Amino acid sequence: MKRFRLLIVALLVGVVVGVLGGCNRRPLLDPSFSTELMVKVDIRNLQNVTCDIYNDKIAVPTIEPEMMRVLFYKPGTNIVAGESYISNVATDAEGNRWLSGVVGIIPGTYEMVIYNFDTRSTMIRNDERHATIEAYTEPVVESIASRFNTRVDDATDILYQPDHIVVATEPEEVIPYHDEVHVINTVAESVVETFYIQAKVEGLEYVSSAQAVLTGMVGSNMLGSRRAVTEKETALYFTMIKSDDKGAPVLCNTFNTFGRIEGAKNDLWMTFDIHTIDGRVITKEYDITHLFSTPECKEHRWLLLDEVIVIPPPPPAPPGPGGGFEPTVGEWDEERHDIIL
């Protein structure tokens, strides 16, 4: 009886081993479910960053992503079928930056979004669907917003400028069944534009700092379709720096935006908030709508103001000794006295 039981156990083990042996052995990372992503970061023709530099004395944004997030969606659903991150960085012979990595995703047809994951100001929301994933920036703090309440409507948000975010997207990415590792080659481009803005200044030596707000701007971008969201007008906040244009003193800088809204209801107003070395605050406002139609802007995204901002010198110090105790020492007089002890 004992031998019969052992025989039954041996037969059962043999059946199990036979069934398992009938399956093909595969490595831990199954090539049939492995996809290698090769993402080229294309910023060769990004104006005011890698080309069309107006003022080489000021720093331009750097776009060197170290990590990218990868999302695969089941078409027409709120289901994320796969999510991963790639961080292998390489540079080709032409100087292009590539990010790559291997992700596990079963064969099928997907909506795909890939974007760099290392931005500070640009944030992501509504990433549960290909159609709703959105890049945006936060409103500025109240202490900043309160300084720009003349031209900016109360219902208009004043936002921080976005960092460049490079995006690769595909509404119908087909991953076939495969024995070897399947490779997706794609290109990521920025959905952010960079402009250069400049105003000539008389009395620049009296300026300690300056900030600006520009109305009529786009506040976000739908990454799945790379569509600028133009339904809601926003204003953009950025700082200005002191420089010169062929020797002429200027306030200038580059700024990033998701785009501008054509025919914005408030046009495009530029408000400068200028602080002087003696503590004054000078506000200047200009309608710069026409600048977006100039050849400089259409061809290079340069906004060059014709107006000259005049900063008066600090008022002279009041005459007289002023307040406070001012000790003085006169000539010594010799006096003799008898002291009775």
Give the topology.
Elements: H1 2-21, E1 34-41, E2 68-73, E3 80-86, E4 88-91, E5 97-104, E6 108-116, E7 123-125, E8 134-136, H2 142-145, E9 158-160, E10 166-175, E11 182-190, E12 193-202, E13 207-218, E14 220-222, E15 227-228, E16 233-245, E17 248-257, E18 269-276, E19 281-287, H3 295-300, E20 302-310
Parallel strand pairs: 1-11, 9-16, 12-20
Antiparallel strand pairs: 1-5, 2-3, 2-6, 4-5, 6-10, 7-8, 8-14, 10-11, 12-17, 13-16, 13-18, 14-15, 16-17, 18-19
Overview of the molecule:
This protein is mostly beta strands. The chain is 9% helix and 42% strand. Strand 2 and strand 3 (80-86) form a beta hairpin. The relative contact order is 0.15. Residues 1-29 have low confidence and may be disordered.
What would the average pLDDT be, to the nearest integer?
86
Q: Helices and strands: which structural class?
A: mainly beta
Our measurement of the CA-to-CA distance between the termini, rounded to an integer number of angstroms, reads 136 Å
The helix/strand order is HEEEEEEEEHEEEEEEEEEEEHE
Q: Helical residue percent?
A: under 10%
Largest sheet: 8 strands, mixed
Globally, the shape reads elongated
Strand content: 35-45%
Number of contiguous helices: 3
> What is the tally of beta strands?
20
> Which residues sit in consecutive blocks of at least 5 with pLDDT less than 50?
1-29
- Strand order across the biggest sheet? 3-2-6-10-11-1-5-4
Cα-based radius of gyration, to the nearest Å: 33 Å
